[in-house]
Every structure is written in C-alpha cells, then in structure tokens.
Amino acid sequence: MSNAPCPSCGAFYPASLLANARTLSPGIVALVREAMPGWSAVRGICPVCAKTYASHLAARRSHVSLHHSTDPHTTFPYYHAAEESLLSQAERLPDYHTVPAAGVTIAFLDSGYYPHPDLARGDNWRGNVPAWHLLSPRQWRTLVEEAGLRFVDYADLTDGSERVGLAVPSLWDGASDSWHGQMTTSTAAGNGQLSGGHYRGYAPQAALLAIKIGRGGGRIPEEDILRGLTWLLEEDRWQRYDVRVVNISVGGDFPEEWTTNPVCRAAHALAQRGVFVAAAAGNRGIDELLAPAQTPTVMTVGGVEDHNRRWRLDEGSAREALSIYHHNSGTVHYQHKLIRKPEILALGRWVPAPVLPPSHVFHEMVAIDRVRRILRGENGDLPGDVRRGLHSAEEDPEPTDRQVTVDVNGWMPEVWRGLRQRMNAHKWAHPYYQHVDGTSVAVTQVSAVAAQMVQANSNLQGSDIREILLATSLPLPHFLPRHGGTGMLQPARAVAAALRTCGGSLTAYPASGTSICENELQKWLLRGTFPMLAPDGAPREGRAVYFGVWAPAARSVSLLGTFNRWQPCRLNLELTAHGWWHGAIRLPAGTHLYRFWMIDAAHPEGHWLRDPENQLTAESGYADAHSLIHLA
Question: For the whole model, what pTM was predicted?
C-alpha cells in the first residue's frame, strides 16, 4: 500500500485513504481553500486535518438560526452561511446504513404515487444521466424503467374501482395528488439518486407495494382507508406480496372507539397476522386520535422538532433543545393496559423530500438554484466576464477556484428578494428537493427502520419489532408523557437489537462500540470468541471496547481511528461464521473517533465506513461522520 503526504500537514498516509477522504463538505472545502490557495479537493486531506477544519467551522456557527437574517426570511433554519441547506435524516438520526432493507416489502396507503428515480434501483443507471429537468416525460419514464423500479406492484382503488399493475396510467400521470405518496415512499425508501445519495431514506433498497386510495384532489374518506386495508387482507394479498410493514400516513374522519371502528379492526387484523403496522398521529396538536392511529396494535408515531441542527444523543443540553411537534395524542385500553399514543417520535420537521417531477415547481426549483448560485457567486459555469463583474477591483480578475464571495444583499437586492420569495413558496432546499413536515413523514422513518429490522432478522413478528423500537428509543423526559411516548426513534440501536433477539445471527455478541467489564472480557477471551487488538502503536491499557461490523463480502476489515493515527490494515478484525468481523481493543479515558477500513472486490485498495451500530457520531469534515466512543 503506497503512501502519500497530506496536502495540509504533510504527514504520510496510504494513498487509498487520502483518496477516500476527498468527499469534503462544501463548508470545509471553503476553509481549506482559505488556508491553501490553489488547493483542489481531488488531492484529498487527512482525517486529522479534516477534523481540525470541521472544529473551526463548528466554532463559527451561530447559536441561533441565521434564517431570520435575510429579508424575506428563508423557511428553514441554518447556522452558517456556507451551510444553508437541510441536514439529511442520517445526519440527524444515524442509521444502520449497511442494512438497507433489501428484499423487504413495505405497503403504503396514500393518495397517489410517482415512480421517482429515488425509488428505482440505485446501481442500474446506464451511462451518464443528463440533467433531469431537461428530460421529457417519455425520456424520464424510459430511464426509470430501464433502471428498474422497486415497486412490486401498484393498485389504484380510487372511485370504487380496482386497477392493478405498473402500467396503470395513474401511476405515471403526475397529478397533484401523486405528491403525498411520492413524499412518503421517498422519505422511507428513497435512495437519494437526485442528491448523489445524500437525501436517502433509511430503507433505500426496500420493495414497495403502492396502494392508491381516495377520491381525487387528495381527499381520503375513512371508508377508502378501509378499502385499502381490506384489499391487503382479501385473498391474503399481504402474504402474496410478502408485506412485512404497512405504512399509513393518512387518518380517518372522526374519533371513535377502536373496537367499533372498521378501519381500526382491519389494521388490528393485519397486526395479528404478524405484520408491523405504523400510522401517523395527526398534526392538529389536540387530544384526539383518528383511525387507525388509536388501534392498540398499530404503532402511532408523533414528531420532534430538532431545528435542523446537529446534535448528539449523549449531550443532555442537546436533547433538551428538542421540542415537540404539534401532533395529536390520546390513550387506549388494551388487554387491561393503558397505552399512551403516540408511542414513539421521529423527525417531524425539515425533512428533505423530492419535488414531484412533472410539476411546474420541479422546473422552477432548478431555475431558482441557478439564479441563486449566480447571485452567491458559486456557479463555476458562469462566463468569465460575469465572474469578473462579481469581483471587486482588488481581487484577482481571473479567480483560480470555482467559488466567489459575493455580497448578495448588496448586489441586485430586488432580484435576491424576489428569488427568496419563490424559494419560500416552494420550500426550497435543493434543486430537486424541498423540506416537508408532519407526522406523515415521521411515521415513514419508523416504517423504514422496521423494514431494516426485518432484513436483519426475518424471524421478527410485528409485535417483536414494536417492542424493540420502544425499548431502544431515546427518552425525552422534558416532554409531557402524553406527548412524548417512550421517546425518539433510534435507528441504529433498533437494528442492532434486532440482530440480537429472536434467533438473530448476532445473539452471542455485544453491540459494536460497547465497553466490556474485565470479568466479561476474560470469559470471552477464554472461549476464544474474539481477539484482542494490540499491535504497535495501539494502547495496551485502559477499558476494553468491543467493535464489530457485518461485512460478509469483505476480504479484510480493520479498525482505525484517533487511537492509531488513522492507519488502516493494522488493527485487523477477525471473521466469524456469520460474516461478522470483530475484535476488542483497550482505550484510555476520553473521546475516541474511529471507522472501519474494508477491502472487498469493489474496493481492492480499501474504503472506510462509520460504525453502523454506534448511534454516537462526530463531525469529520467529510460527507459522512466519524463514529465516536466516549469513556469516562
């Protein structure tokens, strides 16, 4: 493995590691260019320097959102001028990213759908796809169909009829009522194709059964929800399509005792068959639940407002800064128990979702981004005379990098104001994505994690999934019990627990990132269960911490981090019979950042990934965070 110097500090690292480190975040790129004029991101930067720049950027963030600093205000919070964007789901609630819910079918009941590229198979695109906004509807459909949709089927049950199949016209018509279902399916199972994989859901390889219900214009009376559930139950269609999760982001007409409500009884019947059913709590902020949210065997999901801010679950002040979303609540009696609903919470605001492609909004969003980049001086494709016109006389007339600093509030302010107004009207967050809110999207996160859990452990029944989700949630004691349920969804913890229960493949192993007491460690070592890692350069004293990662296709996996100066292929993990690579290392008190280094057929020189089982992360400077261990 050849070594190369870091362009910033000059320390030598394997060239393959520096190559993996080229995906720096835009804010970090700007800081590095400030320090090293002429530097190019293709040269990479070492983890130590990247983390240093990340710390500098974090120190420059405002404690309050900057979205009120413009006139008109932007519609979403942000805290640094270079970070006027939405954080992804995984940046706010880290997930078990190596378990993408492959082979698991989620059924959705919604007002309509659209076969967005984020819902196609992410590895089947042929050649370079042109700019999406330039494609005609026919070209769009051809590309998506060639890539392969992840829809196992589509059923249009609107207007009292039944039309089934992926060629049904309403799947492709792009009518306005298609937006809500595109939003729910994409926030659960989108692969982020149009954002370079950034704005993906937790289940980016799940299969989808789309059931269109309602009466046009987005109206969905309670009897139409019942029709969708009945369709699943009839002829055991849920079983024919191998549906393991049902997502319901719609609600009924009026409050009613669940035992007498047909929608609740149908949802309960599915749950009794082992299907995990999740429903939105509703968004009115009142003590009232509408079917099927009051069904005791249905997991009802509320929302949390995290202000689009980076936070860590081990920081009490960060947890206390979370606020409640205005979701509905209530109680239900079942089997001599009182159940508070919602039982669990997920992200309820500032969730990125694709814009509906056939809409005029889609094309206007792209135009907005183009003009915005020009005003901010971020468009590297601008003609040279325009670039020079945006510079002051003191600056180089021919800038060498592709980013230019522009006083956007002083240059053509009327254009900027008008642009802001259009951005706000469309909830702009990205050329192809907007921000959405509501328990409709909060519930999709729970459904997606449930699908991940099924891939991790196919033995799980719906009731098992429910228990694990509640047991692994993050308590939020500053919320009133009737609003907060057991707490907030913790995707990585839930999937890790699924692997270790009900006959899961990892029942014999601790979770990765877990510190082990000495007595337990000696028992493991005597049985020869896993190796202790202590080559040159690794600490030999301190608390033992267990690490592991599921990678059956890997040729080798090693641990690297701040404790061995980020050197791969030295702390080598050992392979078990289940494709699980593991080992333990002693670490002193303090904070330690780490990743896994994996060599496989697709990456013969190696690549890194954060620990999917560890919910604690720290900014790295790169697109993906480091995993974090803190030992007191």
Answer: 0.93
